[in-house]
């Protein structure tokens, strides 16, 4: 039981640090991580839906270099 709790805590710390330090890469991989580690199908569908909705709300960013 404590091993499972330790794994969950380390996963939370990992995803938290990954989002803070990973930037765009972290934003792309966090929904995948939450999808893989959630065993409840409803949570998976909500995670995918939130990920899709999050992308549509973002306006495109235009920089001087065109990238």
Total domain units? 1
Q: State the share of residues found in helices, binned by percent.
A: over 70%
Computed CA radius of gyration, to the nearest angstrom? 15 Å
Major sheet attributes: none
Span between termini: 48 Å
Low-confidence stretches: none
Beta-strand percentage?
A: under 5%
Shape verdict: flat
Mean pLDDT, to the nearest integer, reads 63
Structural class: mainly alpha
Helix count equals: 3
Give the topology string: H per helix, E per strand.
Answer: HHH
- State the total count of DSSP E strands: 0
Transmembrane segments: 20-37
Keywords: Membrane, Transmembrane, Transmembrane helix
What does this structure look like?
The protein has helices at 2-22, 24-37, 41-57. The model has no long low-confidence stretch (mean pLDDT 63). The chain starts with a helix and ends in a 10-residue tail after the last helix. The chain is mainly alpha-helical and 67 residues long. Helix 1 (2-22) packs antiparallel against helix 2 and helix 2 runs antiparallel to helix 3 (41-57). It has one domain. The protein is flat and about 45 Å long. The chain has three helices and no strands. The longest helix has 21 residues, at 2-22. Helix content is 78%, strand content 0%.
